[in-house]
Amino acid sequence: MNIRIGSRGSALALSQTTAVVSLLQAAYPGADIPLTTITTTGDRLTDVPLSVAARQDAGLFTSALEHALLDAQIDIAVHSLKDMLIELTPGLVIAAIPVRENPSDVIVSRRGHTLSELPHGATVGSSSRRRTAQLLRLRPDLNVIDLRGNVDTRLRKVFDPAGPYDAIVLAYAGLSRLGRLDAISEVLPIETFLTAPGQGALAIQTRDDPHWLSLLTPLNHRDTAEAVAAERAFLSGLGGGCTLPVGAYGIVGGSRLNLSAEVLTPDGRNRIFVEGTFDRGDPSHAGLTLARQALAQGAAAFLEQES
């Protein structure tokens, strides 16, 4: 059996893809799984903020891999789920989502400070509008500036004594997959720092073909897949092109799905928080229900200000 797999070339992306290769080898011993590395727009545009680069290519870190799938250069692609657009590319599907890593965000500080310990006016690096808004909501005194580069580059920047950053915000999952949990100063509680929809989860994408769908089914973790589907449905319910800071976190336990979500203004001054518990089995209903509640509570006004 030959399974051609595609990945971005960063250390983190390759680590994620290696994990998926291990799952495939466990499910299909003896399979030949050649790896192709593909450069995406996001890999090339490292000198501009992500929000600016996204206007040039909405699928910054995914489009090039998707083109390779559609052209049959590869059979499956591995993505960070939070990088994927809500509206999936015609002809392609997310066939499996393995068990999710800890989705929390973390503080990495040059002096080991937690978020509350950072000095007044400290400079914090973030590549995410959500993280920026959340930081400013909790610490409006902070100077939050843009941060680009892969995880290793970001770590070098924060630990550079001559650099501008007193701290940066990263995902726990990325540091875990790279074996750099030692860099963490604080794991931010999800209760006060809701993560991005799908954060910590991997998406295994393939062509909409029964053969590949069946082959990848053993790699799917049902609880994770339902939780992140609810998170992404919340974002979809706000409008597929929503650029506001949005956090959402779902967790499945037994027969129930718990979902928490928030919408913020970019300056962090205004926040709408919604949560609910639902019967599992229909994650889209859970996400869309909370999206309607958020819109009714004022998120629609946030969107009008943003447009």
Describe this structure in words.
With 307 residues, this protein is of the alpha/beta class. 36% of the residues lie in helices and 22% in strands. It contains 10 helices and 13 strands. The strands form 3 sheets. It has a 5-stranded mixed beta sheet with strand order 2-1-3-10-4, sandwiched between helices. Helix 9 (222-238) runs parallel beside helix 10. The chain is globular. Residues 52-57 have low confidence and may be disordered.
Number of beta strands: 13
Task: List the total number of helices.
Answer: 10
Largest sheet: 5 strands, mixed
Class of secondary structure makeup: alpha/beta
Shape estimate: globular
Rg measurement, Å: 19 Å
Give the spatial strand order of the biggest sheet: 2-1-3-10-4
Outline the low-pLDDT stretches: 52-57
Tell me what portion of residues adopts beta-strand conformation: 15-25%
The helical percent reads: 25-40%
SSE run: EHEHHHEEEEHEHEHEEHHEEEH
Question: How far is the first residue's CA from the last residue's CA?
Answer: 49 Å
pLDDT average, as an integer?
Answer: 91
Descriptive terms for the model:
307 residues; alpha/beta; 5-stranded mixed β-sheet
Write the layout of secondary structure elements.
Layout: E1 5-7, H1 11-27, E2 35-37, H2 41-44, H3 50-56, H4 63-70, E3 76-80, E4 92-96, E5 105-109, E6 123-126, H5 129-138, E7 143-146, H6 151-159, E8 167-171, H7 172-177, E9 186-187, E10 202-207, H8 210-216, H9 222-238, E11 246-253, E12 256-264, E13 271-279, H10 283-306
Parallel strand pairs: 1-2, 1-3, 6-7, 6-8
Antiparallel strand pairs: 3-10, 4-10, 5-8, 5-9, 11-12, 12-13
Helix pairs in contact: 9-10
